[in-house]
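Notes, Module 5: Reading structure tokens.

Key idea: the token line is not a picture. It is a compressed description, and you learn to read it the same way you learned to read a sequence, by spotting repeated patterns. We will look at two proteins. The first is printed below with its tokens.
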Amino acid sequence: MKPTVLLIDDEPSVQFGFRAYLNKTGYDVQTAGSIADARQKLTPGSYDIVLLDLSLPDGNGLDLITEIRHNYPEVALVVITGRGDVPVAVKAMQLGADNFLTKPVDMNELNVYLSKSIELKGLRSKEITRKRLDKSTEPYFGKSPAVKKSLELANMAAGSDSTVIIYGQTGTGKGVLAKWIHEHSSRSSGFFVEVNCSALKGDLLSNELFGHARGSFTSAHQDQQGLLEVADGGTLFLDEIGDMDLAVQAQFLKVIEEKKYRRLGEVKSRQSNFRLIGATNQDLLALTKNGRFRLDLYYRVNVFPITLPSLQELEEDVEGLILHLLKSLNYKGTGVPLDVLNLLRRYRWPGNIRELRNVLERGLMLSGGNILKPLHFTGLDLSSAAMPLENKESSIENAEMLQIRRVMEQCSGDTEAASKLLGISRPTLYRKIKKYNLTNH
């Protein structure tokens, strides 16, 4: 199916030229000669792209931008303006236009802009659908003191534009918390762009982040925008940032400092006003000491650290998490039998909340939609379920020690600032510094 374009311009010669070129290059083009005509032709889902001239016989095209963006948020919008009207074009971008072209329009340049606009429309459609679904499923984090502290910090992070790093074991919900921070921040209308640094290595990750120009390598048959460009005005979430290759770390450090980057094969610099959130299941400071993570990048990303507790540390929240996850899996029951709850509580959950969700989903399938029973969870290895108390305490203490060390590092050794950020008194912080022998950190 051909992409559809609505050209809003009152000059017949311009309409003819655009229609002839765009029809030849694979677009289905309709025209409107005025704002009133455009309003009649615009209906939900009718066009992929709107090309809008700002000088129209019945008004200023700027007045139509806000209306289009409000009523048809998914459509790509490109403004056409005279060469002396660049400030007006900037105003159009602020109102919601995706791009602007100056007259006389270079048709090859137009084709590039339209290709990019189609990409943006697809991303915007997915984001709008996701937000619509997310509104009905606010995540459940729990009510235990450990979670409450993490959520207090997340609330602070949502109210600022600072870089955030989320620490926690695999499956603890770092990505969920990152998305929650984005959705509750001033950037919620922008894209939440997620990149898994563990799944993409070297040039693949670099290309995904920065994009490339046509002809920059053998298979680069067309320009490709990077995710930094998509994240402009929104949030870039780098999951497992500790696995990022050193060469890409060096490239990305400059991007954080200047918010500028270049596509592979391009000379000109581009800008992206993104907010960075990172996540890792590793100790980044320890990685800097063995040369796997740049110390200068560590200082850039470790601005506002948040640590998520493991499921083993959330015994009082297990039942609430089970009920929430079952609801998200369309479980029709009103509760969970006590023998099933006791069984699930005994398990150690090394894969944390992600593993819990997978186990519950399998249990529901085995139950056939009927009441859950212990026999539906026979796959759990309960031989090591009862974690020795000393090991459990050691695990919690280790997490506490790492959090205190990170915060002390962030506060440059200022115990007053660190105690406020940790939510404990200075005497308590001094005792813990002595307990964990952190005087040299």
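Here is the second protein, with the sequence above and the tokens below, as before.
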Amino acid sequence: MFVDRAEVSVKAGKGGNGAVSFHREKYISAGGPDGGDGGRGGSVIISVDTNMSTLMDFRYKRKYTAGNGADGTANNKSGKDGKDLTIRVPEGTVIRDKETGAVIVDMSGIKEFRLARGGNGGWGNRHFATPTRQAPRFAKGGLSGEELEIVLELKLLADVGLIGYPNVGKSTLLSVVSKANPKIADYHFTTLFPNLGVVYFGEEGSFILADIPGIIEGASGGAGLGHDFLRHIDRCRLIIHVVDISGSEGRDPIEDFETINEELKKYSPDLAQRPQIVAANKIDIAQDLEQTERFMKYIKSHGYELFVISAAAGTGVRELVNHIAAKLNGLPPITVFETDYVPKPRIQGSPEDLEVENFDDVWTIEGIWIERLMQNVNFSDYESRMYFDRVLRNAGVYKRLEEMGITDGDTISIYNVEFEYSE
């Protein structure tokens, strides 16, 4: 199965906590604090794997988490850094932010990208020693790693894209000009996924040709298979519009040509302006020569370059390939999507965002700001508890409780810590 779009969540590792420790050694009465720092959390790294051609690996696994950093230990020993997580994707995968749709990175021309950074490790208590505080009994907790909801989109790295209605001969043309072996049959929708082929010309020249399947009327709005594969034309420098002029299916080639171009315009106005060559196919079995002549006049009158071919018989194919090669020399390189993603600031929260609820004489406080504050407090140490009390008072938390009606003797509950309020 060809999978070219996937939604996944990634989470970098949490930093390890700093240690609270004091040097203990025979004949040394006051060795001082020696708590080590926590290790840094592992990062999530995106890596290009040239052996991958689809996003099938993401069909069933949707959550990816890097390793956490280890806590610091005694003797000033830092914790081990968390293990990075490497996610492999095919070349040409565009990674977007799920919420905004902004491009985070285009994995074209680069091998690796650090998508989510691990959290910093917390400081051990040795960092908090001062001349007046020689035995700090608290350390700093590690920070959480970055977390993202992303969309992976595979956009083929092809120089030239073959478009057109089903059964017009795109797969046949691809098989004739390259060594690709797409399925070919005389009924609609035989191609269920894009096929790539390398077309060689001259002594050393080559370009990549992609057969984009199933674009029909309404494809830009989700009809048929084209909606799934229109994204693969985004990078193409040149478009070959294959049209069946044989009349064997009773369709009007001019109407087919206009319908497909209208779908391109709806999907992307920029794509509709891409250089386009028309390949009028199946001339060897053309039944209505008057209709064929009318189509050729229509195409030329609209300024398109026209090649009348028969992919099955090989008629006019070499001339088309040589013209494509010459045309590509004057066109810009394959499109690489520019990053327009603005990273979100690490969520720290603020005292104003705290949720305060009252249940009789019990007051509960919750929020990211106070949760992070508690990671850095050792509630078994008097000095650390006084620090916690000062921060709450200076941040206006007590004032807010008083305005809400807290009284002397009421209980304040903050996650797993409870203490009595006193004015």
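Summary for the second protein:
- The CA atoms of residues 265 and 272 lie 5 Å apart.
- The mean pLDDT is 86.
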